[in-house]
């Protein structure tokens, strides 16, 4: 099985990011365009968190807010645990399970490298099983 660093590098550059002051509707539009269920939230080029479809449902729709009036920083998830490029896939799966999240931001030292998803890890497990 590939390392977390190899998985993140294999995903290529991420284009699904928005600035924190963006409106939620703009983040949703980007999610649709990029066919993802989350966007990376940056503030002045620094990682601030993720906004997912779940955040939208919980913090906008069910809170009776409006996506064209609410900023991404108002609904961003920044309590998601982070992992390093040195983390193992097994550790990441356990962390996702314990924290009930499908996403883990990945850092190398203090540099944001990307987002590891549950789908990334499932694909690795499947490929690993098929190669043996």
Summarize the structure.
The chain is 39% helix and 23% strand. It has 132 residues and is α/β, with parallel strands linked by helices.
Main sheet: which strands, in order across? 1-2-3
Give the name of the CATH architecture.
Answer: Roll
The name of the CATH superfamily reads CBS-domain
- Radius of gyration (CA) equals 15 Å
The biggest beta sheet, please?
3 strands, mixed
Along the chain, the helix and strand elements come as: HEHEEHEHEEH
The level-1 CATH class: Alpha Beta
Which stretches are poorly predicted, pLDDT < 50 over at least 5 residues?
none
Percentage of β-strand residues: 15-25%
- Helices, by number, come to 5
Distance between the termini: 11 Å
List keywords for this structure.
single chain, 132 residues, alpha/beta, three-stranded mixed beta sheet, 39% helix, elongated
Question: Any chance you could write out the topology, listing elements then pairs?
Answer:
Elements: H1 4-11, E1 17-19, H2 24-34, E2 38-43, E3 46-52, H3 53-61, E4 83-84, H4 89-99, E5 103-108, E6 111-117, H5 118-130
Parallel strand pairs: 1-2, 4-5
Antiparallel strand pairs: 2-3, 5-6
Structure description:
This protein is of the alpha/beta class and 132 residues long. The protein has one domain (4-130): CBS-domain (Roll). The protein is 39% helix and 23% strand. The protein has 5 helices and 6 strands; from the N terminus they run αβαββαβαββα. The chain has helices at 4-11, 24-34, 53-61, 89-99, 118-130, and strands spanning 17-19, 38-43, 46-52, 83-84, 103-108, 111-117. The strands form 2 sheets. Strands 1-2-3 form a 3-stranded mixed sheet. A 3-stranded mixed sheet has the order 4-5-6. Strand 1 (17-19), helix 2 and strand 2 form a beta-alpha-beta unit. The longest helix is centred in the last third of the chain and has 13 residues, at 118-130. The N and C termini lie close together (11 Å). 24% of the residues are buried. The mean pLDDT is 94.
């Amino acid at each position: 099985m590939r390392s977390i660093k190899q998985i993140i590098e294999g995903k290529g550059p991420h284009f699904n990011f928005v600035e924190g002051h963006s409106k939620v509707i703009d983040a949703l539009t980007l999610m649709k365009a990029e066919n993802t269920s989350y966007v990376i939230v940056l503030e002045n080029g620094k990682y601030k968190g993720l906004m997912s479809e779940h955040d939208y449902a919980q913090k906008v729709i069910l809170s009776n807010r409006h996506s064209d009036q609410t900023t991404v920083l108002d609904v961003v998830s920044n309590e998601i645990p982070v992992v390093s490029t040195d983390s193992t896939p097994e550790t990441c799966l356990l962390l996702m399970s314990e924290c009930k999240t499908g996403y883990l931001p990945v850092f190398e030292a203090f540099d944001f490298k990307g987002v590891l998803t549950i789908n990334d890890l499932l694909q690795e497990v499947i490929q690993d099983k098929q190669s043996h």
